[in-house]
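Before anything else, study the sequence and fold tokens given here and see whether the fold suits the sequence. Record follows:
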Amino acid sequence: MNDAPGRGPTRRVFLGALGAAGVASKAGCARAAGSVEETGADEDFWSDVARAFDVDRSLVNLDNGAGSPTPAVVREAMRRRLSECDARPPSLMLHGALQPEIEAVRARLAAAFGADREELAITRNSSESLQICQFGIDLRRGDEILTSTQDYPRMIAAFRQRERREGVVLRQVKLPVPAEDPAEIVALYARAITPATRLLLVCHMVNLTGQVLPVKEIVAMARARGVPTIVDGAHALAHLDFRIRDLDCDYYGVSLHKWLAAPPGTGLLYVRREKIAGLWPLMAAPPGMDGDIRKFEETGTQSLAHKISIAEAVDFHLAVGGARKAARLVELRDRWARRLLAASERIRLHTSLKPGLAGGMATFVVKGVDTRRLRAWLLDRHRILTQAIVHEDVVGLRVSPSVYTAPEEIDRFSAAIEHVLARGLPG
């Protein structure tokens, strides 16, 4: 699959990714080659995309930030490869026969998301990817690590463990909610850097709110001060339309089972080539692998069928189109967010609606309504799944639709919130 740069996917690509699921109509395939503007609000096109997912439509899933269902074509590929592995001796399949396919997946990811294949490790999730960096960079007692109070709890816990064990110091900045001035964000991190700062962790998209941070500018600022940067891209890759190399970061960690809709238990780690040799893997690798990105994949026996099936998820993503997908997610977000903001002054949005400052995930609060109770009521009474965010910086419901989400489902959610605004929650 080699589409011309800057153009939408071809009809053949769309058939290849969706046809196996039996959902790509001739008209849908033709529209797939059109521009973002032509298909961004084309509900026939998005209906074709939605039919690639076998989801329970009696439940409105607006918690895709936690993880996405896989398209049928991906699930079928995984089932087929698991069967192939069971049919042959494990020692043959796991330690030789499947390795060329893993390399093909590595190359596919590199081409799709803008990186050198020798800088990409295939991991199990973003936690593994990021903790390879968090624990693998040498630090001394008194060295400072900089992050924010809004970073993912597991990543903060990893640094806190290094504090307890090694005597390093974690410093955290507080980000505004919502954050609508990128220059202010860069300045916050810049002011927090001291002569003792040795490492910076920054979210590309904040999991609490969907806020997109000016990562490229933060990375450039930190590099000018001699500080390497780890970027938490768990919610950004295959959600926002960008190339990893354009961020110019040192390390980038991702879960592929979120916005790429790859099989569960798959992730990606990017390490700048010159940083590979100096980064220790979580599990030991021989000295001969010091400069090899594959040393981060030395984790013992695992299901390679899941990793190989990433290829179909990449194909599906490219068939839909990265820019088109990003635009659609923003359109779905705006459909509910602007409606609720217009409905009542009691709606407070924790996520900026300004272009480029968020994607399809956003968090809001209904003033005077308990967030956890509201989430439970939506699920129990209306079968609408959201995520309750209760954090020192942010309290509210996080809403994260996906490409299979129908506008009618967004409207069903909005109507339920309007009911609460008018009548309150049942006692």
Remarks:
- The first strand starts at residue 60 and ends at 61.
